[in-house]
Every structure is written in structure tokens, then in C-alpha cells.
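Quick one: co-fold with magnesium ion.
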Amino acid sequence: MSLLKPHFRGAMLGVVVGDCMGSFWEATSWRKTLNMDDVQRKIDEQVEQSLRREFRISYTDDSTMSFSLAESLLSSKEYNAVDVAKRFSADYFRDPRRGYGQSISTVFTKLRFGIDDVYQPAAEQFNGKGSFGNGSAMRVAPVALFAYQKKDTLIEVARNSARITHAHPSAIIGAILQAIAVHTALELRGSDLDPVSFVESLLSVVVPLEEAVEEPTSSGATDESTPSGDDPSSSPPPDKKSLVLPSYQSKLLQIKEFIRQPHPPSADEIMETLGNGIKACEAVPCAIYAFLHCHKLSFKYLIPYTISLGGDTDTIASMAGAIGGAYWGESCIPMEWINSVEGSNQAIKLADGLFEFYSNA
Ligand SMILES: [Mg+2]
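Sure, here it is.
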């Protein structure tokens, strides 16, 4: 097992590299999968252009919010909800064109002017049900680094940091699941990985959380942007059946089945069973499966593979990138990718800060 620090860096770099590489496809891959060769070609082309013309591929809200959360944890040396909320909101108003969800601006506007309970704006969304979008999970990777040795703290911080924007249990449990996946990858860091055991360790955390929720699959909505324009919050109220969300337990069991079957599922099969959309209960399982499918390969394969699964490509590639980067470490990420994306220096700086925090704890 290798030293921990390069894996902290790998996790944070994975967030930003996955986000940047996936962002090109976000608007074009709605409810469909992509040809992996096309994705690979586009990555090569973007990287080549970036290095030749000396510009960086832009990151989106996934990286912005991950950086903010990491910065807050480092400056407060603990989870401080008011500080996190302030930073999320300030970032949004500084640069709102980073691909934020459509209705999240309501939450950020309320947070901007100061509020006694920073969890209240998110809790009020969608008739008090809260958002079940993947925005809570896309930014959670730094929490796994911050609380590397304290799993209870990790779960608590993942839960509460989610609640600032996403109050629905499905979004909260999705954030915890993603944080635990990054944490498990960090613990394994390059050593033999049994995908079935990996899934079982995730199940052991998620099942009790889902059992503790009265209505884990009740109504709500997502606040993430939908490139097709069909924002669930602005659509007519769907019937009750369409509001029922699948559990993470069922998705993880499906992943276990995929792993065990002699031939891996097609991208379309993954889209139809795990999903690839803006719901946390689709994006998080999709990212976890992508990593497990590629765990014997490389980060260089993981990112185009994940993007080829379509849907919310930047967020899913960012989350898979965080898990893969945590597992393989910094050196697995192609240097030309690191040099061609915006925010890679910031990712390294924050990873080092979080490592120092962990070392001095
Ligand atoms: Mg994004």
C-alpha cells in the first residue's frame, strides 16, 4: 500500500479532471449514452488545444463547490455550516455561469443575506421535501479527506454539508455514499480490490441509513440544471408513482449483479438500470459502478468510460474521478490532463492542506 498523500491529491485532482473532461458532453448526452471512441477523441483534442494555445479547460459547479467545502473545512478546522453556506453563496454570485442547477439560486439568494438557520432555505424547497439532486454528492470528496480517520465525523459532515442545499433524504444519503466510496478507495489505495467486498462495505453504511428514514423514496425534486430544459420543479406535478425513488440498496445490489455476471453490461443497460441523470440516486451509483468496472485498468480509461455512460457527464465523471484518483493516486492521472484543466493547482493545494490537517490531528 502506498503513502497516503498522493492519494489525497488524486482524489481532489480526480474531482476537477473528471468535471472538466465531462463538461463538454453535459448538454449533448441527456438521456443517452455516448461512443467511447468519440469521447476519447474529444478529450485528446481538448487537451492538445489547451496545451498548444495555453488555455485551461473550464471546470463547473462540481469543482467550485468541492473547493469551497475544502477551503471552509481547512480555515475553520471543523465543519462550520454558516461558513460553508456563506462560501457556497459567495461563489455562486461571483460566477453564476458554472452550470449550477436552476432553482438553487433561490437557496443561495436567501443564504447571501444571512439567515439564522442556514439549513432552512434548502428544507423549504419543493414544498418542504427538498431537492434530491446530485449536487450534494458532487462536492463531498474533500469530506472524505478531512475526516479520513473518523468515519462518524465523515458521515456527519457529509450529511450536514449536503443539507445546506439538498434536504431530501435521497440527496443526503447519496452524499454520504459518495464520501464513503472515496474513503474506501483511499483506504485501499492501490492494493487488491474486490469489487463485491467494496459494494458490501458501502451497503453496510447505506442500509441502516435508509432504514432510519421514514419515507426514503417520497416526493421532492432536483435543483440541478437539466440540459433538455425539463426542470422537474417547473413541470406539472407528476403522478405519485413517478416520484418514487429507488433505494441505494437496490442500486448497489444491481451493481453487485453486474460485477458477477460474465460479461459487463452495455452503457445503455447501465443507463436503464442505474440511471445517469441529475438525481443523486442515479448519478452516485453510476459513478461507483464506473470506478468498479475500471478498477483493474486506469484513470485514463475510467474518465472516458464514465463519460460514455452519458447523462450528467461532468458530475458523474467528477465523482468517479474522485474515487479513482483516491484509489490510484496522483501519478495515475496523465500529466497533460492535469496541465490542461483549470483548477488543478488549487486541487493540489487543498489536498495538501487536508493531508496536513489529517497528519496533525
Ligand atoms: Mg457541473
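If it helps, Residues 60-62, 99, 314-315 surround magnesium ion (CB under 6 Å).
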